[in-house]
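Chapter review. Work through the record for PTS system protein before attempting the end-of-chapter questions.
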Amino acid sequence: MEEEIMTIILNAGDARSKCLLALKSARKGEFEKAKEQLKQVSQSMILAHNVQTRLIQKEMTGEKHQVSLLMVHAQDHLMTAMAIRDMVEEMVAYAEELNKKMEERL
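Structure tokens for PTS system protein:
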């Protein structure tokens, strides 16, 4: 189970890092690059979420596990990464819209 938990942590951490890279790309006006980085975020999030789902399904079928600090940490990483992803997607879209409006005025 620890290996599965580490998979969640690693993929959620990877997703969070890529979100911040996407935000930096958008800040530079590199919107296509930012969108590509956000696609990579989705891949990492899917991997982490799939492991989380498997662990939940195991528990629902009667396989009980003690809640460990490592599991709490993994859940924290995943939820934080999901929140950051949602915010960064909106911020990239907003920055791109704002950039287009500024270009139209010039």
